[in-house]
């Protein structure tokens, strides 16, 4: 049989392969139609599809977040200054870089997801390489943020003691920035194909190694923040290397066909979508980063910063659940839109919204029930523990309300609506929440509780 070829962005797409993919999509559509006998059966069917992606994605997100969170926990056992330094670096310096890099890579969720849904698997590898080029350039532009982090934090009002400690730690964490440049495109590449179990196993293995060696270096051998930096850098690069080995070895079912000069083609169009994705996500992540900076300006900020950092640490773990659903709904929406199944995309949005809010309510109850005990897991200071307990009521409501917002962001990414969400984030976060929190916290001297209530 003669094979004819079509070409997109210089990548040949075999008509036979496209035809097989179309038949597969039609079989899936028929199966969906068979399950559409009632609302309950539709909900069950879509729940299974979502959890197939969301379950491993949540586990992966929690494992990767736990590396930084556990490092922060060990730092809290060393002392208040060490906890504040790690918290500032994680929340402000690395947090800012994390937002930019993850946001830039989120363009792949739209492009790879829709390409996979349309059966154009060969484009996924090209898109990932383009994202590597753009993110490596972005990482180079972000290096001054790490180099001058101490000055930046002091300029924002943080005390010199905390700024110097966080700045020193930030310099040691610069290799992590370049690990982000490879990791996030790889993550989106694998997620779009539903290969989330691979990511989960890699993250779990690295987390176990990270926990054991961090305890050894930081507490047992007394290396302190230097040991923390060594293990965080090694752990992130190990995740990158193991995932690359998997992709290069398996070829990812044809999605990876080797390095190509096409990675440098149409970069400007890719940059524009990446930039829109970065703005959308950064407006959310930087908002939380500003919370730590603002609290650091309060009189006698060491205890408030530590307390807020503990609450954000816990909120971060909970947010990993929402981020897992964010990844799942982004994949589901982009795949279904790419295949032309618009009704199923709407059903996916309904199901994931209900599921995420239900989980958020359970976490809300857990935080309230343990507010007197969980701070002791993160600090040996009674003053920090008491302050954390005091503001935990805000944390409880925050995890409930934030259970839905990341999911809706995932819908926007899957559909390519990043610019619209960016405008909404500007209005809600920066025109309402942030000014209200600053005004009441400083002008009327109502303290950290009022600041975080209005900002969250």
Automatic annotation (TrEMBL):
Tell me one Pfam family matched here.
Answer: MatE
One GO biological process term: xenobiotic detoxification by transmembrane export across the plasma membrane
Give the span(s) annotated as Disordered.
1-33
Membrane disposition: Multi-pass membrane protein
Q: Which subcellular locations apply to this protein?
A: Membrane
Identify one Gene Ontology CC term for this UniProt entry. membrane
One GO MF annotation is: antiporter activity
Q: What is its main location?
A: membrane
What PANTHER family does the database record attribute to this sequence? Answer: MULTIDRUG RESISTANCE PROTEIN
Q: Which family does it belong to?
A: Belongs to the multi antimicrobial extrusion (MATE) (TC 2.A.66.1) family.
The record ties this protein, via NCBIfam families, to: matE
Q: What is this protein called?
A: Protein DETOXIFICATION
């Amino acid at each position: 049989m003669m094979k004819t070829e079509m070409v997109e962005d210089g990548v040949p797409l075999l008509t036979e392969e496209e035809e097989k993919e179309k038949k597969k999509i039609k079989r899936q559509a028929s199966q969906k139609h068979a399950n559409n006998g009632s609302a309950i059966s539709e909900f069950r069917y879509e729940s299974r599809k979502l959890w197939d992606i969301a379950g491993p994605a949540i586990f992966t997100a929690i494992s990767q977040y736990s590396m930084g969170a556990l490092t922060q926990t060990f730092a809290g056992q060393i002392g208040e200054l060490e906890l504040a330094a790690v918290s500032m670096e994680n929340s402000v310096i690395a947090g800012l870089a994390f937002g930019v890099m993850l946001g830039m890579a989120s363009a792949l969720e739209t492009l790879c997801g829709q390409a996979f849904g349309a059966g154009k698997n060969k484009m996924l590898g090209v898109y990932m390489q383009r994202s590597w080029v753009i993110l490596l350039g972005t990482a180079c532009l972000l290096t001054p943020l790490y180099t001058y982090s101490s000055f930046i934090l002091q300029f924002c009002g943080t005390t010199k003691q905390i700024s110097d400690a966080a700045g020193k730690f930030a310099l040691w964490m610069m290799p992590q920035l370049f690990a982000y440049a490879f990791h996030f495109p790889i993550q989106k590449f694998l997620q779009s194909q539903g290969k989330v179990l691979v990511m989960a196993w890699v993250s779990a293995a690295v987390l176990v190694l990270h926990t054991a060696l961090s305890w050894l270096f930081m507490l047992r051998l007394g290396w302190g923040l230097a040991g923390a930096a060594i293990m965080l850098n090694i752990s992130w690069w190990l995740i990158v290397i193991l995932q690359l080995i998997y992709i290069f070895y398996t070829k990812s079912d044809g999605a990876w066909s080797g390095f190509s000069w096409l990675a440098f083609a149409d970069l400007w169009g890719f940059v524009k979508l990446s930039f829109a994705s970065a703005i959308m996500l950064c407006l959310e992540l930087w908002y939380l980063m500003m919370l730590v900076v603002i609290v650091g300006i309060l009189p006698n900020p060491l205890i408030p910063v530590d307390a807020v950092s503990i609450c954000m640490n816990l909120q971060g773990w909970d947010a990993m659940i929402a981020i897992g659903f964010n990844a799942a709904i982004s994949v589901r929406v982009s795949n279904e839109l790419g295949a032309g199944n618009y009704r199923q995309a709407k059903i996916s949005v309904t199901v994931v919204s209900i599921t995420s809010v239900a989980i958020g309510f359970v976490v809300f109850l857990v935080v309230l029930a343990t507010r007197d005990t969980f701070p002791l897991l993160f600090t040996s200071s009674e003053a920090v523990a008491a302050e954390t307990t005091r503001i935990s009521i805000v944390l409880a409501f925050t995890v409930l309300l934030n259970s839905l917002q990341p999911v809706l962001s995932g819908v926007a990414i899957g559909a390519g609506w990043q610019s619209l969400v960016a405008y909404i984030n500007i209005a809600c976060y920066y025109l309402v929440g942030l000014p209200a929190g600053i005004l009441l916290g400083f002008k009327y001297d109502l303290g950290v509780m009022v600041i975080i209530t209005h900002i969250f």
